[in-house]
From TrEMBL:
It comes from Colletotrichum phormii. Its EC number is 1.13.11.93. Its cofactor is Fe(2+). Signal peptide: none annotated. GO terms for molecular function: dioxygenase activity. This is 2-oxoadipate dioxygenase/decarboxylase.
Protein backbone atom coordinates (compact mmCIF):
# COMPACT_ATOMS: atom_id res chain seq x y z
CA UNK A 1 0.00 0.00 0.00
CA UNK A 2 1.39 3.38 -1.01
CA UNK A 3 2.06 6.06 1.61
CA UNK A 4 0.44 8.71 -0.59
CA UNK A 5 -3.21 8.77 -1.48
CA UNK A 6 -4.18 8.23 -5.11
CA UNK A 7 -4.89 11.95 -5.56
CA UNK A 8 -1.54 12.91 -4.00
CA UNK A 9 0.27 10.42 -6.22
CA UNK A 10 -1.28 11.89 -9.36
CA UNK A 11 -0.44 15.45 -8.30
CA UNK A 12 3.19 14.45 -7.72
CA UNK A 13 3.35 12.46 -10.95
CA UNK A 14 2.03 15.42 -12.94
CA UNK A 15 4.91 17.48 -11.55
CA UNK A 16 7.52 14.78 -12.29
CA UNK A 17 7.42 10.95 -12.22
CA UNK A 18 10.63 10.72 -10.18
CA UNK A 19 9.08 12.94 -7.50
CA UNK A 20 6.07 10.61 -7.34
CA UNK A 21 8.34 7.57 -7.15
CA UNK A 22 10.35 8.99 -4.24
CA UNK A 23 7.56 10.56 -2.19
CA UNK A 24 4.67 8.13 -2.57
CA UNK A 25 6.04 5.02 -0.90
CA UNK A 26 7.01 4.21 2.67
CA UNK A 27 10.55 2.97 2.03
CA UNK A 28 13.28 2.97 -0.56
CA UNK A 29 13.21 0.28 -3.21
CA UNK A 30 15.64 -0.98 -5.82
CA UNK A 31 14.52 0.45 -9.13
CA UNK A 32 17.01 -1.54 -11.15
CA UNK A 33 20.02 -3.85 -11.03
CA UNK A 34 22.75 -3.71 -13.65
CA UNK A 35 24.06 -7.12 -14.70
CA UNK A 36 27.13 -7.20 -16.93
CA UNK A 37 27.13 -8.97 -20.29
CA UNK A 38 29.87 -9.87 -22.76
CA UNK A 39 27.77 -8.92 -25.81
CA UNK A 40 25.30 -6.07 -25.38
CA UNK A 41 24.21 -6.24 -29.04
CA UNK A 42 23.16 -9.88 -28.59
CA UNK A 43 21.22 -8.96 -25.43
CA UNK A 44 19.42 -6.11 -27.22
CA UNK A 45 18.47 -8.40 -30.12
CA UNK A 46 17.32 -11.19 -27.79
CA UNK A 47 15.08 -8.84 -25.80
CA UNK A 48 13.46 -7.59 -28.99
CA UNK A 49 12.94 -11.12 -30.26
CA UNK A 50 11.25 -11.97 -26.95
CA UNK A 51 8.78 -9.13 -27.50
CA UNK A 52 10.11 -6.96 -24.68
CA UNK A 53 9.82 -3.18 -24.76
CA UNK A 54 13.44 -2.06 -25.02
CA UNK A 55 15.32 1.17 -25.62
CA UNK A 56 15.49 2.26 -29.23
CA UNK A 57 19.29 2.17 -29.23
CA UNK A 58 22.26 1.15 -27.09
CA UNK A 59 23.86 3.99 -25.12
CA UNK A 60 27.60 4.65 -25.08
CA UNK A 61 30.33 4.34 -27.71
CA UNK A 62 29.40 2.77 -31.06
CA UNK A 63 30.32 -0.81 -31.93
CA UNK A 64 34.11 -1.21 -32.09
CA UNK A 65 36.76 -3.92 -32.27
CA UNK A 66 38.16 -2.70 -28.94
CA UNK A 67 35.43 -1.62 -26.55
CA UNK A 68 36.16 1.42 -24.39
CA UNK A 69 34.20 2.69 -21.39
CA UNK A 70 30.80 0.92 -21.47
CA UNK A 71 27.73 0.34 -23.58
CA UNK A 72 24.35 -0.07 -21.90
CA UNK A 73 20.70 -0.68 -22.67
CA UNK A 74 17.54 -1.61 -20.79
CA UNK A 75 14.04 -2.91 -21.09
CA UNK A 76 11.54 -0.25 -20.16
CA UNK A 77 9.96 -0.08 -16.72
CA UNK A 78 7.21 -2.62 -16.16
CA UNK A 79 3.82 -1.57 -14.84
CA UNK A 80 3.25 -2.90 -11.33
CA UNK A 81 -0.01 -2.75 -9.43
CA UNK A 82 -0.09 -0.73 -6.21
CA UNK A 83 -2.93 -0.06 -3.79
CA UNK A 84 -3.60 3.60 -2.96
CA UNK A 85 -5.76 5.03 -0.21
CA UNK A 86 -8.52 7.46 -1.12
CA UNK A 87 -10.58 10.10 0.69
CA UNK A 88 -13.09 7.41 1.54
CA UNK A 89 -12.05 4.27 3.48
CA UNK A 90 -11.24 2.06 0.51
CA UNK A 91 -8.20 1.16 -1.62
CA UNK A 92 -7.77 1.76 -5.33
CA UNK A 93 -5.66 -0.61 -7.39
CA UNK A 94 -3.59 1.39 -9.89
CA UNK A 95 -0.46 1.04 -11.98
CA UNK A 96 2.99 2.42 -11.26
CA UNK A 97 6.18 2.19 -13.34
CA UNK A 98 9.55 2.49 -11.64
CA UNK A 99 11.66 -0.66 -11.94
CA UNK A 100 13.44 -1.29 -15.21
CA UNK A 101 16.12 -3.73 -16.37
CA UNK A 102 19.48 -2.28 -17.29
CA UNK A 103 22.31 -4.31 -18.83
CA UNK A 104 25.85 -3.18 -19.62
CA UNK A 105 28.97 -4.32 -21.41
CA UNK A 106 32.17 -2.90 -19.93
CA UNK A 107 35.30 -2.09 -21.89
CA UNK A 108 38.69 -0.52 -21.23
CA UNK A 109 39.23 2.38 -18.84
CA UNK A 110 40.39 5.42 -20.79
CA UNK A 111 43.03 7.89 -19.64
CA UNK A 112 42.30 11.59 -19.26
CA UNK A 113 43.57 12.02 -22.82
CA UNK A 114 41.30 9.21 -24.00
CA UNK A 115 38.34 10.75 -22.20
CA UNK A 116 38.90 14.13 -23.85
CA UNK A 117 38.99 12.50 -27.29
CA UNK A 118 35.83 10.49 -26.52
CA UNK A 119 33.91 13.55 -25.37
CA UNK A 120 35.02 15.57 -28.42
CA UNK A 121 33.85 12.86 -30.81
CA UNK A 122 30.62 12.41 -28.84
CA UNK A 123 29.83 16.11 -29.21
CA UNK A 124 30.68 15.93 -32.92
CA UNK A 125 28.36 12.94 -33.40
CA UNK A 126 25.54 14.60 -31.44
CA UNK A 127 25.77 17.71 -33.60
CA UNK A 128 25.30 15.56 -36.70
CA UNK A 129 22.42 13.45 -35.36
CA UNK A 130 19.89 16.00 -34.13
CA UNK A 131 16.39 14.61 -34.83
CA UNK A 132 17.85 11.54 -36.58
CA UNK A 133 16.32 8.06 -36.29
CA UNK A 134 18.09 5.58 -33.95
CA UNK A 135 19.57 3.60 -36.84
CA UNK A 136 20.95 6.78 -38.41
CA UNK A 137 22.39 7.88 -35.06
CA UNK A 138 24.34 4.62 -34.78
CA UNK A 139 25.68 4.81 -38.34
CA UNK A 140 26.80 8.42 -37.96
CA UNK A 141 28.41 7.71 -34.59
CA UNK A 142 30.35 4.78 -36.07
CA UNK A 143 31.67 7.03 -38.84
CA UNK A 144 32.67 9.82 -36.42
CA UNK A 145 34.38 7.41 -34.03
CA UNK A 146 36.64 6.07 -36.78
CA UNK A 147 38.89 8.88 -35.55
CA UNK A 148 39.33 6.97 -32.28
CA UNK A 149 42.09 4.29 -32.62
CA UNK A 150 40.64 0.78 -32.58
CA UNK A 151 43.49 -1.64 -31.88
CA UNK A 152 44.75 -2.40 -28.39
CA UNK A 153 48.34 -1.65 -29.45
CA UNK A 154 47.49 1.79 -30.82
CA UNK A 155 45.19 2.65 -27.92
CA UNK A 156 47.92 1.74 -25.45
CA UNK A 157 50.88 3.28 -27.31
CA UNK A 158 49.01 6.58 -27.77
CA UNK A 159 48.18 6.74 -24.07
CA UNK A 160 44.42 6.50 -24.52
CA UNK A 161 43.73 3.54 -22.19
CA UNK A 162 45.02 2.23 -18.88
CA UNK A 163 46.64 -1.22 -18.88
CA UNK A 164 47.85 -3.71 -16.33
CA UNK A 165 51.09 -5.46 -17.24
CA UNK A 166 52.09 -9.08 -16.62
CA UNK A 167 55.34 -10.97 -17.03
CA UNK A 168 54.69 -14.03 -19.23
CA UNK A 169 58.24 -14.92 -20.26
CA UNK A 170 61.92 -14.65 -19.34
CA UNK A 171 63.97 -11.55 -20.00
CA UNK A 172 66.35 -11.87 -22.96
CA UNK A 173 70.10 -11.72 -22.19
CA UNK A 174 71.29 -8.21 -21.51
CA UNK A 175 68.01 -6.90 -20.10
CA UNK A 176 68.84 -7.63 -16.45
CA UNK A 177 69.70 -4.46 -14.58
CA UNK A 178 68.34 -2.24 -17.36
CA UNK A 179 65.55 0.27 -16.87
CA UNK A 180 62.04 -0.72 -17.94
CA UNK A 181 61.33 2.52 -19.79
CA UNK A 182 58.82 3.04 -22.58
CA UNK A 183 61.15 1.72 -25.30
CA UNK A 184 62.08 -1.37 -23.29
CA UNK A 185 58.42 -2.00 -22.49
CA UNK A 186 57.41 -1.93 -26.16
CA UNK A 187 60.35 -4.15 -27.10
CA UNK A 188 59.55 -6.78 -24.47
CA UNK A 189 55.83 -6.75 -25.35
CA UNK A 190 56.77 -7.38 -29.02
CA UNK A 191 59.05 -10.22 -27.92
CA UNK A 192 56.25 -11.87 -25.94
CA UNK A 193 57.92 -11.34 -22.57
CA UNK A 194 55.36 -8.86 -21.21
CA UNK A 195 51.60 -8.85 -21.78
CA UNK A 196 49.41 -5.74 -21.53
CA UNK A 197 45.78 -6.20 -20.50
CA UNK A 198 43.32 -3.27 -20.59
CA UNK A 199 41.98 -2.33 -17.16
CA UNK A 200 38.19 -2.63 -17.01
CA UNK A 201 36.27 0.63 -16.76
CA UNK A 202 34.58 0.72 -13.34
CA UNK A 203 32.74 4.03 -13.43
CA UNK A 204 29.58 5.05 -15.27
CA UNK A 205 28.86 7.44 -18.14
CA UNK A 206 26.56 10.27 -16.99
CA UNK A 207 25.31 11.03 -20.50
CA UNK A 208 24.53 7.35 -21.22
CA UNK A 209 22.91 6.85 -17.82
CA UNK A 210 20.74 9.89 -18.47
CA UNK A 211 19.61 8.27 -21.71
CA UNK A 212 18.59 5.11 -19.84
CA UNK A 213 16.59 7.06 -17.25
CA UNK A 214 15.04 9.36 -19.82
CA UNK A 215 13.68 6.39 -21.76
CA UNK A 216 11.86 5.29 -18.61
CA UNK A 217 10.32 8.68 -17.80
CA UNK A 218 7.31 10.38 -19.25
CA UNK A 219 8.54 13.35 -21.26
CA UNK A 220 5.30 15.38 -21.32
CA UNK A 221 2.98 16.79 -18.68
CA UNK A 222 -0.74 16.11 -18.31
CA UNK A 223 -1.53 18.75 -20.96
CA UNK A 224 0.82 17.18 -23.50
CA UNK A 225 3.52 19.83 -23.15
CA UNK A 226 7.21 18.85 -22.83
CA UNK A 227 8.32 18.68 -19.21
CA UNK A 228 10.61 21.54 -18.26
CA UNK A 229 13.88 20.19 -16.88
CA UNK A 230 16.18 22.34 -14.78
CA UNK A 231 19.79 22.71 -15.88
CA UNK A 232 21.97 20.50 -13.63
CA UNK A 233 24.05 22.25 -11.00
CA UNK A 234 26.93 19.98 -9.86
CA UNK A 235 27.98 20.47 -6.24
CA UNK A 236 31.18 18.53 -5.58
CA UNK A 237 31.86 20.41 -2.35
CA UNK A 238 28.39 19.58 -1.02
CA UNK A 239 28.88 15.94 -2.00
CA UNK A 240 32.23 15.78 -0.15
CA UNK A 241 30.70 17.37 2.94
CA UNK A 242 27.83 14.87 2.93
CA UNK A 243 30.21 11.96 2.37
CA UNK A 244 32.60 13.31 5.03
CA UNK A 245 35.62 12.29 2.95
CA UNK A 246 37.14 12.87 -0.46
CA UNK A 247 35.91 10.46 -3.14
CA UNK A 248 38.50 8.37 -4.96
CA UNK A 249 39.94 10.01 -8.06
CA UNK A 250 39.20 7.31 -10.64
CA UNK A 251 42.05 8.34 -12.96
CA UNK A 252 44.57 8.19 -10.09
CA UNK A 253 43.22 4.76 -9.15
CA UNK A 254 43.70 3.35 -12.66
CA UNK A 255 47.17 4.92 -12.89
CA UNK A 256 48.18 3.36 -9.58
CA UNK A 257 47.13 -0.12 -10.78
CA UNK A 258 49.17 0.37 -13.96
CA UNK A 259 52.23 1.70 -12.09
CA UNK A 260 52.19 -1.15 -9.56
CA UNK A 261 51.96 -3.74 -12.33
CA UNK A 262 54.97 -2.24 -14.15
CA UNK A 263 56.97 -2.28 -10.93
CA UNK A 264 56.13 -5.96 -10.35
CA UNK A 265 57.07 -6.84 -13.95
CA UNK A 266 60.40 -5.01 -13.63
CA UNK A 267 61.22 -6.88 -10.43
CA UNK A 268 60.36 -10.25 -12.01
CA UNK A 269 62.67 -9.53 -14.95
CA UNK A 270 65.50 -8.20 -12.80
CA UNK A 271 65.06 -4.72 -14.21
CA UNK A 272 64.44 -1.35 -12.58
CA UNK A 273 61.10 0.42 -12.89
CA UNK A 274 61.11 3.71 -14.79
Amino acid sequence: VAAATFDQFNILKAEHPILADIASFQSAHINHLTPRTLDISAVQAAMREAGMAVKARIEGPPIRQCLILLRQTSFLALEEYVHFRTAIPELIKAGHKARFGEVEERGAAVTEQGKILYERLLQEAMALTANAEPEQVDRIAEDVFKQYPDTWTELRSKGLIHCEYFCIGKAPPGEAGQQLDALALERLIAQGVIEARPITYEDFLPFSAAGIFQSNLQSRDKDGRPLQMKHPEPDLLGFVEALEEEPVNIQSWYSLIQKRSLKAVAENLGMTAA
